[in-house]
Specification:
Blueprint lengths: L10 H13 L2 E2 H11 L5 H13 L3 E13 L2 E11 L9 H9 L1
Antiparallel strand pairs: 1-3, 2-3
């Protein structure tokens, strides 16, 4: 009998796993920018959703949180949450991601 409900896997989340496999660590905006250079466009909001969901499924882990001072439209500082691969991440070594990082 097939499982009921939503599948726990996601193409977007798997693509972020592939990116983090090559980067080692990254924050939301950075991952979103790289994602949109390699894969079909996806919103930053969707990338942040999948980062949070990946924390729940332990595909991602919070490596560190950095507060940066500056003059932003929303205030005097920004908080960057750096993510790395978690214990349940299964990178498949996507050829598109490998080629992208080899060019850099």
């Amino acid at each position: 009998m097939p499982k009921r409900g939503r599948p726990t896997t996601s193409a977007i989340r798997q693509n972020i796993v592939e990116i983090l496999h090559h980067l080692g660590e990254g924050y939301g905006y950075q991952l979103s920018a790289v994602y949109n250079q390699i894969f079909p466009k996806c919103t930053m909001r969707s990338v942040h959703y999948h980062l949070k969901k990946g924390l729940e499924t332990q595909e991602f882990a919070v490596k560190r949180i950095v507060k940066e001072e500056g003059t932003y439209s929303w205030g005097a500082h920004a908080e960057k949450i750096y993510y790395s691969l978690g214990e349940h991440a299964k990178p498949k070594i996507d050829e598109r991601v490998r080629m992208f990082f080899e060019k850099k």
